[in-house]
Design a protein that fits this description.
Bound molecules: adenosine monophosphate, magnesium ion
Largest sheet: 6 strands, antiparallel
Shape: globular
Number of helices: 19
Structural class: alpha+beta
Strand content: 5-15%
Length: 516
């Protein structure tokens, strides 16, 4: 017998921001089937599904049978899409079901995606196809395992209903867990309508929920802008360091919490090239890998505009204050990026030395990336091969970078910098002996392996997994890939074929789709 499902929802968004949504119900799914259930995530959230039958899980996560305390609603928001403003988007196929509190006291939204039409569906059918939902599950869980802030996937349900895109596809519904669903576009919706009181209410809510340390500050609205810039700078720096390309960085797909959200046409770069773009709708390359930091800044400028009436009485003063914060973004990003680059290179520099070494380390990293780009080296495997190089084995690196002379001269510089770093901070090489040196090399190799994944979601493998699930109902490639991606820093020979890049021919023809 199945125990009744109980979730202690505490729905602050619904209670405190009544003008920010429409209450709505999920459309029933005719034949729901649980295809993916994230047991580990459920446990960290303190949700107990242990007494539930597969049928009960399917009934819940399809929205057919909501537990007590659920308060399903569709949120309203606007957004700049590819640079153009859409004054009303909103949850066209998603519903916030309720907020949960973990045993540690953290608050998360539990939301459905693909649960049917809402008042904000415009011309859409409110539905989702299985492939894109499994992609979101794979990529969100992979990012999480890589240590990158992201919304996560608790379940994917097959609805038992076809959805009509270019072809007929199996329908699905995804349960998303997010720190919140407050987007830059949520602010834009109310600001565009001149509803300053609503912008203020949303700002106060955001501070209380995500930046409580700012509560009570006289400059809390400006501080919020700066704090969101800081989190986004840190987030995008982390994306850049694993080659993650979001693909559709519209302002409605940027959170105030600093989590990655809305995995439409996202993909990972294989051969290093800043111009890499996979999304079929991104014809100008607006959201190419190398543009992500400046697009983040552009989006944050749109957020800043919505906050102007709260920043100062006089508009010119408000603009000056906001502009200063937005102008600091590149510096914030560069700081996070350099910090990440140093970890990837195998050394972390103490803050007091940062400034002095910044130029040198920046140049070292840029020269490294130039080597990768020139030889179209695989981004992930090249970084990882630095661990072998630290142990004296150059072969894996030479397999990626063919210009031997240029590589050797870069490796010599890098090793000098490593030795200098160890001398300065660890005092290990004051009187270098070969024994000390080799223990230090082993330590460095470990540090490099902890900072540079062995496996990322490889585009070809992701596509194979999604195709098997959608076309043959075979979930095993998806399950195997997901398992491999859960421990990205550990080399595991079982998964070797999943960790390899695709051929250049596959990658050059590879296109991703929004899946809407
Ligand atoms: P996205 O590109 O997935 O972030 O979606 C952009 C906007 O389109 C959001 O307002 C979505 O809710 C809406 N949308 C996407 N797909 C659908 C769909 N199949 N039906 C209704 N609305 C949709
Ligand atoms: Mg979106």
């Amino acid at each position: 017998m199945t125990t009744p499902l109980h979730i202690a929802f505490d729905n602050t968004y619904a209670r405190e921001l009544p003008d920010f949504y429409r209450t709505w119900k999920p459309t029933p799914a005719p034949a729901p089937k649980c295809l993916f259930f994230n047991d580990r995530l459920a446990r960290t959230l303190g949700l107990d599904f242990s007494g539930q039958s597969p049928q009960a899980l399917a009934a819940f996560f399809s929205g057919n049978q909501l537990p007590d305390g659920a308060f399903p609603l569709a949120q309203v928001y606007a957004g700049h899409q590819f640079g153009g403003f859409s004054p009303q988007l909103g949850d066209g196929r998603a519903l916030l079901i309720g907020e949960i509190l973990t045993p540690q006291g953290a608050r998360y939204d539990l939301a459905f995606k693909g649960s049917g039409r809402t008042p904000f569906s415009r011309n859409g059918d409110g539905k989702a196809a299985l492939g894109p939902m499994l992609r979101e599950a794979l990529i969100s869980e992979a990012l999480h395992a890589l240590g990158i802030p992201t919304t996560r996937t608790l379940a994917v349900i097959g609805t038992g209903e076809p959805v009509y895109r270019e072809t007929v596809l199996p329908g699905a519904n995804l349960t998303r867990i997010a720190a919140s669903h407050i987007r830059v576009g949520t602010f834009e919706y109310f600001a565009a309508r001149g509803e300053t009181q609503h912008v203020k209410a949303l700002t106060d809510y955001t501070i209380a929920r995500h930046y409580p340390e700012l509560t009570g500050s006289r400059t809390c609205y400006l501080d919020l802008l700066a704090a969101v810039c800081e989190r986004q700078a840190a987030l995008v720096a982390q994306w850049q360091h694993v080659g993650f390309i979001h693909g559709v960085m519209n302002t409605d797909n940027m959170t105030l919490s600093g989590e990655t959200i809305d995995f439409g046409p996202c993909a990972f770069m294989e051969a290093f090239d800043p111009n890499t773009v996979f999304s079929s709708i991104d014809r100008q390359g607006r959201y190419a890998y190398g543009n992500q930091p400046s697009i983040a800044q552009w989006n944050l400028a749109r957020l800043a505009e919505t906050l102007l009436p709260l920043l100062a009485e006089r508009q010119e003063e408000a603009i000056a204050l906001a502009t200063e914060i937005i102008h600091q973004f590149p510096e914030k990003f560069a700081r996070h990026w350099l910090q990440g680059a140093r970890r990837k290179l195998g050394f972390e520099t103490a803050p007091e030395q940062e400034r002095e070494q910044a130029q040198i380390d920046l140049q070292l990293t840029q020269d490294w990336l130039a080597l990768l780009q020139k030889d179209k080296a695989d981004f992930t495997l090249s970084w990882r091969a630095l661990a072998d190089a630290a142990e004296g084995n150059l072969a894996p690196l030479q397999a990626q970078i063919h210009d031997r002379e240029a590589l050797q001269s870069w490796v010599d510089r890098w090793k000098l910098r490593c030795a200098e770093h160890d001398h300065r901070y660890e005092h290990t090489l004051v009187t270098p002996s070969s024994a000390l040196e080799s223990s230090c090399d082993a330590r460095r190799a470990n540090a490099i392996r902890a900072a540079n994944p062995w496996i990322i979601p490889r585009n070809q493998r992701v596509e194979e997994a999604l195709t098997a699930a959608s076309e043959s109902g075979d979930l095993s490639p998806f399950e195997t890939l997901l398992e491999a991606l859960r421990h990205p820093f550990e080399e595991n020979s079982v998964y070797r074929s999943l960790a390899q890049p695709a051929t250049a021919a596959f990658t050059s023809g590879y296109r991703t789709f929004c899946g809407t």
